[in-house]
Design brief:
Blueprint lengths: L1 H38 L12 H14 L3 H9 L10 H6 L1
Helix pairs in contact: 2-3
Protein name: Serpin domain-containing protein
Keywords: Protease inhibitor, Serine protease inhibitor, Signal
Organism: Haemaphysalis longicornis (Bush tick)
């Protein structure tokens, strides 16, 4: 009985972490599209180049150390709250 319970607990943890990974990826994609909308004008004189992954990683490091209002603002800007990633540990583990 105990081995079955352990297998079930591990499987449940893997399913939840996969869902968090998918949600975090969607949040990063939304951030990338929003950044592109702000950086690119309708008739840009030059090409626009930026790295959404680098920006998300940099803000993610700031989020890891933020508390209070700063944490809430970064979570909102990074799209965590929009995708239900409101627990810091879930975000950092994903």
């Amino acid at each position: 009985m105990l081995p079955r319970l352990v297998v079930f607990a591990v499987a449940a943890a893997l399913v939840n972490s996969e869902n968090d990974d998918v949600l975090l990826a969607r949040a990063h994609n939304t951030l990338a599209v929003n950044l592109l909308k702000h950086l690119a004008s309708p008739n840009p004189p030059e090409n626009v180049f930026f790295s959404p992954t680098s920006i998300a990683a940099a803000f993610g490091m700031a989020y890891a150390g933020a508390r209070g209002v700063s944490e809430d603002e970064l979570a909102s800007a990074l799209g965590h709250t929009a995708f239900g990633l409101t627990e810091r540990t879930r975000v950092l583990e994903a």
